[in-house]
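chain below, 462 aa
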Amino acid sequence: MRRYAWLAVVAVLAALAALFLTLTQARPTYDGMGFLVWGQQALHLNFNLNGAPSWKPLPFLATLPYALAGRPGQEWLWTFTSDFAAGAAVVLAARLAYRLSPEVHGRRWARVAGALVAAYGVATLVGLLEFALIANSDQLVVALLLAAIDVHVSRRPRAAFALLWLAALGRPEVWPFLVLYGAYTWRQGALPAWLTVTAVLAAPAVWFVVPGLTSKSWLQASNLALGQKTAIHGNKLIGVFERLRTLTVLPMQVATLVAIVIGLRGRDRRVLWLTAAALLWFCVEVAFALHGFSAVARYLIEPGAVLMVVAGIGVATLLSRPSGPARWLGPLAVAALVVSLFPYTHRTLVTDHALISQAHTDARVLGELEAVIRADGGPRRLLACGRPFAPLGYQSTVAWDLGLNVGTVFFGVGAGFYGHTPAVLVVPRRRGPVIYGWHVLAVHEPPARAAACRGLDRSVAV
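prediction:
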């Protein structure tokens, strides 16, 4: 019955993800469009990674088979996967907090309260909804990691190792965890040594071998990620900590700290192990920041989600004490937490509404771009007039609409980026921050096609 119940939960999550996708009209943006380009170009044996986004094997494992469904089908399937993963992360956080909270007879409701707090914490993590709306891959890594912890708790180390291996294809921060858990599975006799070692080596190998075969450098992914404007200036340790801390609101930060203190005092191994895992990820991210990588907040959402589970366990622990001063102090503390969350929840809802409105706007803008390209005779006519140029934020989208690898599209500002090479400018028309159409213009067009290329000019949406 439990198995069927969780199958029902998966079905409900899938239905909600499809409904969310329909209502928000969410479409992939910069990274998401790049993932789709990878799948399409690899399917047509024309795949290279010389352009952004930075290579991640995990989304490619999805967008390549999805490409068999055609371009609209591939886009819908990947966006649905992204939305489903965000919902799954919330559900898995609640499930973990419930399972790992102390069991006290007659106080099952305390575990339910802890599960709700964990779900709230993950659902309101800064960036989670945005990642779902723009079809990013970070929430998929969160869901895989929480699922790996869950099946480990169920004493299924082989399944946990497999999920951890998939997560390692989404973020390099997972590699140390893969090594440590690989050693654990080998010591437990769950997997033979040769298979464990092969899997541990294969995960980072995919990160380097594929760019080595399809781009100008084996280190193309790290080359693209280095030197970003979002890199931390100043003390890297404090900078990474601030980005992790501000992923959630102040009351949840306090609840997490209290839960860790309770776990330390009670020597709760579950809380200690989860906290240690979040700390290890934090240390790895600090090391990356010291090396020059950006260490942006979205690279810290995974330990943030784990800490939200810790907060949920702390709430359940406070509510599970039937005697002594904690019998009434615990409920008072939890009630204070709930009350303090009201203004932050209102602020989050306002922000989420703005993100959904932006998703509607982005969908309209991308639809107008497709309409302009069709009105201009389609990709073949545009490409006959020169190499396409687009602003950096739309480079992968223009590549997707024209059926090109992202690195084939010029980006930047001004003619200096394409010199005297025949080029087709595809740039948005703006009134302040509002995009109201697209401008397509051929420059330095081939003499034999000068007349045809001059007819490309589209100054407004079609």
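The chain is about 65% helix and 5% strand. The chain has a mean pLDDT of 87.
thats it, cya
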